[in-house]
């Protein structure tokens, strides 16, 4: 049973509502509508998978035509509408038309998100009834309900907020996300919608979003798989302030990055079967890209993730994963520690094991979050990647997903 | 309990023997010696991991000095002698010296293999007693014993043989391997020793071995991890025939490839926690490299491997894994089938699901081996990768490996 989300609002200028339309079983919420009071600027970052779901292709088309007058995002869980060909694309267009008719805007002002099983047709009877219900008294109002409606194998809703001042006026960033499996850099079976009342052009939004995604959602790995449906949307109502200058834009990007990192960590923490969040911090790299490459290789390693699960300080697996990352590391310069701050335990220095307390090292792997720090001794750059431990429950969840 | 290997001999000119020296617990065989009656030609292919175990660095040094007069291979399981620095390299050299003294040859004529836990020192007292015992009456004679001594988490020995004629005379290829975890293209925690009585120069052996490894051991994935110790050695006694001509050399490479493919499939079949072998055959690619890239991406996907484990025909995961391989595939040209020959079930044509019998598709995922065939519709090239299903037992094995 998914717990209720904490009370949570979107940024001023946006409302959300959700219903159960039958795409999920058991009467669970599965259709969410995020609506803007006025046409707003939008930006999106999408999966780089060659196999893209219909809503991804559709949203890219909508945003490519001009992203200055978006009115709504409609999101369903329970069906990914991927590998569904022309009928799938028609279903996505029809969904947007239904929402547009209900809100009194053009279909090209509606963005669509889907997540769930690949290769099954979207049941348009259910979606049509759901869209009608979204505007009725039967709908569950509020972003907390919407954040629950988009979940699939997630065990909890994921929300984040950040606040800053632009032009001397307060600005809010509020968003939510889903994702628990098929999670890997360059996104995941992951949807996120972020809203703000800042006044930014679509181009400025896109710049900020790409930067934020690069250091948040693209630094999460649950299982190394990349989905057909990954989408992060950012909508700006402009209700709060005048367009920011360059300095303020940087502050906005930093605040947005903070909100995205929070969502990304919540996704990793809620990885299918996961019992704890694992933070892989690589430092001393020649470049940030190199640090990311090494951290990613460690985060992808099932042997590292199972060792963390068992609290087994099998540090050789961490070094082996770093060594096969493709980065030109020098084993003799590696320093490896578990934990952070005063409680950190150094296991390896100069590539060799040092005398350490095995019980203390094991205990640090049983904390939540687990912190694994690897210094490459090659430079000053660093990157952090978030993943989770790997349990037998992951297999149980995924061995019978469609059947 | 590891079952006994079937009676098995190395190629003429080679003998093998094994003892239990205490590196493994419970009195299991853990030290194997493969000896050549006369100095022989040798070639090796090694891990590309930047973190290389001492025996890998040592063997590369020995073969680099000239690989025409090798007399023996000493192999231990239970300790990888990786991340052990200068003392680890000294232990490897000392192991070779002990074997050389016992056989009456130079240390530079002895190759060394190690597999087991990373980062622990090799117990040289045990190795020294073991080497002495290998030449005593207490040792277990025969390649079958040696093939058991090198195992770690393997559940069964892995042996292969191939026969051909060179210059009108019969030639044998005989080998064995170990490997069950940390198995991924560009090798694995995988050791293999192949012997032949063919008369080939070290350079010709290396050419044949690189070609064979490229289409066998480098096409296996259990968990995407790459080890610090991977080594495949090929020794040629030259007892059988005169050096082959170019046509015969090609026949030798083909026979060697067959033996290596057999060992590679045995390794995938015996993947940690695996219940069946999975063969990913990608066809219709623009190049063999492209086919390999796509097949590898599918074989690495935990979502595909857990679906196979559960007999869940969740074909969307196969397409999603192909789509994020990096290869420029066109979703609209994909054809996907489970099974082979007359029993094959086509699930996807032109990128879209076709009407298929879900029960039949599920049944094909419960066969051993499982065959997944994906045609890219882009060209004529093909490649096959072998992996295994992914069970909860994998997690159980790896959560407490060192503790």
Characterise the protein shown here.
2 copies of one chain form a homodimer. The first copy, chain A, is α+β, with helices and mostly antiparallel strands. In chain A, 33% of the residues lie in helices and 27% in strands. In chain A, α1 (54-64) packs across α2. Chain A is globular and about 70 Å long. Chains A and B meet through α8, α9, β13 and α11 of A and α8, α9, β13 and α11 of B. Chains A, B: Substrate binds at residues 152, 178, 189, 272, 398, 403. Chains A, B: Its main location: cytoplasm. Chains A, B: GO terms for molecular function: L-glutamate N-acetyltransferase activity; L-glutamate N-acetyltransferase activity, acting on acetyl-L-ornithine as donor.
Write the layout of secondary structure elements.
2 copies of one chain form a homodimer.
Chain A lengths: L13 E6 L11 E16 L7 H11 L5 E10 L5 H19 L6 E8 L6 H11 L5 E2 L1 H7 L8 E9 L2 E10 L12 E6 L5 H13 L16 E6 L9 H24 L7 E9 L2 H13 L1 H9 L4 H9 L11 E4 L6 E5 L2 E2 L4 H8 L4 E6 L5 E8 L3 H7 L5
Parallel strand pairs in A: 3-4, 8-9, 10-14
Antiparallel strand pairs in A: 1-2, 1-5, 2-3, 2-9, 6-7, 7-8, 10-15, 11-12, 11-14, 12-13
Helix pairs in contact in A: 1-2, 2-3, 5-6, 7-9
- How many β-strand runs of chain A? 15
| Main structural class of chain A | alpha+beta
Show the largest interface: A-B, 70 and 70 residues
Specify Rg of chain A, calculated over alpha carbons. 22 Å
- What fraction, in percent, of the residue positions of chain A are helical? 25-40%
CATH fold topology of the largest domain in chain A: L-amino peptidase D-ALA esterase/amidase
Largest sheet of chain A: 9 strands, mixed
What global shape of chain A is seen?
globular
Distance between the termini of chain A: 20 Å
Low-confidence stretches of chain A: 184-188
CATH superfamily heading of the largest domain in chain A: L-amino peptidase D-ALA esterase/amidase
- Count helical runs of chain A: 11
Overall mean pLDDT of chain A stands at: 87
Strand content of chain A: 25-35%
């Amino acid at each position: 049973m998914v717990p209720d989300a904490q009370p949570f609002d979107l940024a001023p200028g946006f409302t959300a509502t959700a219903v159960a339309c039958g795409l999920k079983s058991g009467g669970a919420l599965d259709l969410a509508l995020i609506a803007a009071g006025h046409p707003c600027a939008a930006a999106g970052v999408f999966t780089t998978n060659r196999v893209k779901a219909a809503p991804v292709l559709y949203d890219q088309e909508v945003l490519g035509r001009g992203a200055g007058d978006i009115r709504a995002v409609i999101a369903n869980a329970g069906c990914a509408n991927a590998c569904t060909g022309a009928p799938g694309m028609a279903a996505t267009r029809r969904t947007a038309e239904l929402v547009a008719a209900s809100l009194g805007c053009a279909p090209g002002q509606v963005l669509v998100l889907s997540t769930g099983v690949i290769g099954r047709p979207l049941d348009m009877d259910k979606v049509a009834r759901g869209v009608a219900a979204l505007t009725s008294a039967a709908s569950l109002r509020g972003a907390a309900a919407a954040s629950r409606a988009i979940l699939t194998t997630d065990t909890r809703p994921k929300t984040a907020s950040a606040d800053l001042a632009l032009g001397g006026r307060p600005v809010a960033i509020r968003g939510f996300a889903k994702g628990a499996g098929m999670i890997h850099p360059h996104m995941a079976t992951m949807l996120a919608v972020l809203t703000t009342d800042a006044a930014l052009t679509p181009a400025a939004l896109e710049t900020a979003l790409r930067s934020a995604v690069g250091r948040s959602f693209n630094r999460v790995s649950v299982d190394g798989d990349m989905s057909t449906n990954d989408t992060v949307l950012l909508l700006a109502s402009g209700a709060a302030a005048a367009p920011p200058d360059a300095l303020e834009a940087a502050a906005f990007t930093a605040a947005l990055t903070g909100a995205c990192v929070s969502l990304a960590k919540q996704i990793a923490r809620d990885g299918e079967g996961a019992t704890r969040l694992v933070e892989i911090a690589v430092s001393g790299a020649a470049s940030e890209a190199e640090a990311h490459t090494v951290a990613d290789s460690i985060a992808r390693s099932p042997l590292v993730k199972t060792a963390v699960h068992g609290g087994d300080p099998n540090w050789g697996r961490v070094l082996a994963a770093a060594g096969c990352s493709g980065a030109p590391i020098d084993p003799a310069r590696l320093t490896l520690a578990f934990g952070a701050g005063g409680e950190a335990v150094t296991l390896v220095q100069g590539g060799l094991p040092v005398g350490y307390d095995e019980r203390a090292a094991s205990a640090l792997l049983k904390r939540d979050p687990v912190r694994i720090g690897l210094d490459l001794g090659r430079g000053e750059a660093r990157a952090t990647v978030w993943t989770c431990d790997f349990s037998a429950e992951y297999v149980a969840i995924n061995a019978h997903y469609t059947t």
